[in-house]
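ARCHIVE ENTRY
Sequence with per-residue tokens
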Amino acid sequence: MEEIISLYISNITKSINIVIKCERLITILDLKELVAKKLDTYACLFRLTNGKNLEENLDTLLSDLNIKNEDKLFFMNKLNTDRAVLEEWFRLYGYNWTDSDNWCSDSPLDEWYGVTTNENGKITHLDLSSNNLSSVPSELSQLTKLIELELCYNKLLSVPPELSQLTNLILLDLNNNNLTSVSSELSQLTNLTQLFISGNNISSVPSELSQLTNLTHLYLSSNKLSSVPSELSQLTNLTQLGLTNNNISFVPSELSQLTKLTHLDLDYNNISLVSPELSQLKYLDLSHNKLISVPYELSQLKYLDLSHNKLISVPYELSQLTNLIELYLDYNNISLVPSELSQLTNLKYLDLDNNNLLSVPSELSQLTNLKYLDLDNNNLLSVPSELS
């Protein structure tokens, strides 16, 4: 059995004194973790010394340093917390990163790869996208001035809940990782305006996310969601919502409460019916679904993609969308186009290819702003001369 020793740890400038009991065959790093737990801090935020630099080799054993029972060590807070956090992150996990120019050098932090600082040298923007990251340390929560954190296209399986302490954060990009869940603690990031979690393996969204009431952009595309959480209707400042490529079959009526929503992506799902009134929308993509009917209470809409669905006709009510500029109806089973479509006087793009059309109304010639009309791969016997 190894000898248990007591070490007296004092602050180098203040009269703080703690006693640590440990084995003599403990490493400096493990000792620092014990001290950090006592001090309720992180090991990377202070240095240990006994007159020598004990940080030179953190794997050195106390016995090798001849530190004995009741010896006194001192801890000293590092002057630059932001630098200390990044140095520790790189020391533990940076060996496999794609880019790490100037990390752990004497260069100013804003010369380190992916790091932006303010005039006081505090980190405000950290972009380590596409950098082969596999882990994010909880110590990152100490970057108290961080505004934007971009970690997309990496190999992250999770993010520490301590990131919820980054209360100045306005943008968090976790797109294209290997996340399987969204931490409910992220709901404490109340200043967040943009949250990107697309391209992961998430099957549900915590209801607490509805507390992010400053959120304007939320992207959850390419995950494993089977429904749209009704709680999202509480995100009343939301302008863009991305739910592309999930397993969604139903759109809750509560989404009509998102009165500032202008951009909605629901393509590549299993939706057959869209019931909520979304009259404020300007962009709606419902392509690659199973729609058999068309939403038309969308008076502000400028872009509508209904391609690759199961539509058999174009309802004349679509003619009420007089602000529409682009309309995509290709790859359906449409056999009839109503002449009322000619009322879409702002229309520039109309795609009707790969349907079952036998004819098209000559009234479409009244679409004087039309620049693109695709009627390929139909059963047309002729095209009105007015359109030729």
Summary: The chain has a mean pLDDT of 90. Residues 4-77 form a domain with the Ubiquitin-like (UB roll) fold (CATH 3.10.20.90). The helical segments are 28-39, 81-93.
